[in-house]
Write a structure and sequence with these properties.
Blueprint (H helix, E strand, L loop, with lengths): L2 E7 L16 E2 L2 E2 H10 L6 E6 L4 H15 L4 E4 L4 H12 L6 E6 L7 H11 L4 E6 L6 E3 L5 E4 L7 E2 L3 E4 H9 L10 H7 L4 E5 L10 H11 L3 E17 L3 E3 L2 E3 L3 E3 L7 H14 L4 H4 L12 H14 L2 E11 L9 H12 L6 E6 L5 H4 L3 E13 L1
Parallel strand pairs: 1-4, 1-6, 4-5, 7-12, 17-18
Antiparallel strand pairs: 2-3, 6-11, 7-10, 7-11, 8-9, 13-16, 13-19, 14-15, 17-19
This protein binds cytidine-5'-triphosphate (CTP) and magnesium ion.
The site of cytidine-5'-triphosphate (CTP) has 22 residues, from strand 1 and helix 3.
C-alpha cells in the first residue's frame, strides 16, 4: 500500500500567542514542524510527505525541511495553504492528485509528538476500512454548559471521544469526499469531511502525549515530556581548511558569497560545514568526514555540504543523541563574514535540524599571519555538544 502524508502547517497559531507561529517555535531543540515532519518522513511505511504552509513562511519552511528531507532520502514537498484548515488540507491533497497514493494520512503540524506506533495503528486499519482516526476517551466527567454558562447536564462519557490526527483514509475515499465539499466549507477535521460524504471512520487508540499545541502552556507540557534527565554529554571538535583560488565566489556555512575567488576542493569546499560535520562525528566517535564521504567517490564531487551536515545530524539522532549546540569559527581575512553571519547561522541550524539558538557562527582573522592571513586559504573550526537522555 503506497502511503502519503499531508502535514498542515499554514495556520497562524493565534491561541498559542508569541510572535512566531507555533509550528516554527523551538520545542526542546527542534522546531515543532521539524518534529512533526520527522515522525512521518522517517517512518518506513511512508512514501511521500507533503507539507502545507502559509506563503510568508514558505522560504523558512523550505530551509528547515530540506535538511530533514535529505537525511530521510526524500524530497521535501511544500505547497501553499489556505485561509482555513479545510482549505489547507485541500491544497495538500491537490499536490497528490496527479500521482495518487493508496492511502493518505492528514496530520496537524501542531502535534509534534505522534509516535511511529500510532501511525502504524492508523495504517493497519486502512487495509479494511475507508478511514481511521486516533481517539481517546475522557477520564473527566463531561458536562454541557447551561444557558447561563454554568455547568449543566451530564454527558455520557462512554459515548464521546477526543479525536486527534493523523487521520488516515483510502486516498480515493478522501479525494471523493473533498470533491463533494462546498468550495468554502470549513470543517474541523477529515473525519467530518469523510462523514459528510457518507464514509465510515474507525476509531483507533489515540495517545495522550499526541496533544495539539494550542495554548501557551502546552509548550511547557511538551518540553517536560521531551526533557528527560541527561545521562551523558560528549563534546566533539572539527577543523578544516581549503585553498583559495581565482574564481566566481564561494560557499561558506551554506551561504553563497559573491567574490573574485573560490574555494578549491572536491565537494563544494564549504569549510564551515565540513568542520561542523567533523565536530558532530567527533562527539559520536564515528570517524571523520572523509570516512563517510570519501573524496575518491565521484558522487561527492561538487556535493552540497548541507547533505553531509544532514547526514551527520541523522547519525546523531540514530545514536540517540540530541545536538545541544554547535559553534563554528571561520578564520579568514576575506570575505567579511559579518553581513552573512545570520544567514549562515540559520543555514547551519537548518542543516542540523535544530533551532537557531543552538547554532553559532563566528569569524576571526589571524592578523595577516599564516596561510589564512596571506589569503592562501580559509580555515574553520567547530565544537559540537551532544547529549544523551535517560
Ligand atoms: N492550519 C492550516 N491552515 C489553516 C489553519 C490551520 O494548515 N488555515 C493547520 C495549523 O497550522 C495546525 C493545524 O491546522 O497545524 C491545526 O489547527 P490549529 O491548532 O487551530 O492551528 P492554528 O489555526 O494555527 O491556531 P489558532 O486556531 O490558535 O490560530
Ligand atoms: Mg485554528
Amino acid at each position: 500500500m503506497s502511503v502519503a502524508a499531508v502535514i498542515v502547517a499554514a495556520g497562524s497559531g493565534s491561541r498559542a500567542g508569541g510572535e512566531t507561529p507555533k509550528q516554527y517555535r523551538d520545542l526542546a531543540g527542534a522546531p515543532v514542524l521539524v518534529r512533526a515532519y520527522r515522525a512521518f518522513a522517517s517512518h518506513p511505511r511512508l512514501d511521500r510527505v507533503v507539507v502545507v504552509v502559509a506563503e510568508s513562511w514558505k522560504d523558512h519552511a523550505e530551509q528547515l525541511l530540506s535538511a530533514e528531507a535529505s537525511a530521510a532520502g526524500r524530497p521535501a514537498e511544500i505547497v501553499l495553504g489556505g485561509a482555513t484548515r479545510t482549505a489547507s488540507v485541500r491544497a495538500g491533497l491537490a499536490a497528490l492528485a496527479s500521482d495518487p497514493p493508496d492511502a493518505v494520512l492528514v496530520h496537524d503540524a501542531a502535534r509534534p509528538l505522534a509516535s511511529a506506533a500510532l501511525i502504524d495503528r492508523v495504517l493497519d486499519v486502512l487495509a479494511a476500512a475507508d478511514g481511521a482516526a486516533p481517539a481517546l476517551p475522557s477520564s473527566d466527567a463531561l458536562k454541557a454548559l447551561d444557558d447561563r454558562g454554568g455547568l449543566g447536564a451530564d454527558l455520557d462519557r462512554g459515548a464521546v471521544r477526543a479525536v486527534q490526527t493523523p487521520q488516515g483514509f483510502r486516498h480515493a475515499a478522501l479525494a471523493a469526499a473533498y470533491a463533494g465539499l462546498a468550495a468554502d466549507a470549513d470543517l474541523p477535521d477529515e473525519v467530518a469531511v469523510a462523514r459528510a460524504a457518507g464514509f465510515n471512520v474507525v476509531a483507533v487508540e489515540g495517545e495522550p502525549d499526541n496533544f495539539k499545541l494550542t495554548r501557551p502552556e502546552d509548550f511547557s507540557r511538551a518540553e517536560r515530556l521531551l526533557r528527560a534527565p541527561i545521562a551523558r554529554i560528549a563534546a566533539g571538535t572539527g577543523f578544516d581548511a581549503h585553498r583559495l583560488v581565482p574564481g566566481g565566489g564561494l560557499t561558506l556555512c551554506g551561504v553563497r558569497i559573491a567574490a573574485d575567488v573560490a574555494l578549491a576542493g572536491h565537494s563544494d569546499a564549504d569549510v564551515g560545514f565540513h568542520a561542523a560535520v567533523d565536530a558532530v562525528l567527533g562527539a559520536l566517535g564515528a570517524g571523520d568526514i572523509g570516512s563517510h564521504f570519501p573524496p575518491a567517490e565521484a558522487r561527492w564531487k561538487g556535493a552540497d555540504s548541507a547533505a553531509f551536515l544532514a547526514h551527520a545530524a541523522a547519525l546523531a539522532r540514530a545514536a540517540g543523541a540530541e545536538i545541544q549546540h554547535l559553534d563554528v569559527t571561520l578564520i579568514c581575512e576575506r570575505p567579511r563574514i559579518g553581513p552573512h553571519r545570520n544567514a549562515m547561522r540559520a543555514a547551519l541550524a537548518a542543516g542540523l535540524g535544530v533551532a537557531v539558538e543552538r547554532a553559532s557562527v563566528k569569524a576571526t582573522t589571524t592578523e595577516k599571519m599564516g596561510f589564512t592571513g596571506r589569503g592562501e586559504g580559509i580555515a574553520a573550526q567547530a565544537a559540537a555538544t551532544l547529549v544523551w537522555r535517560l
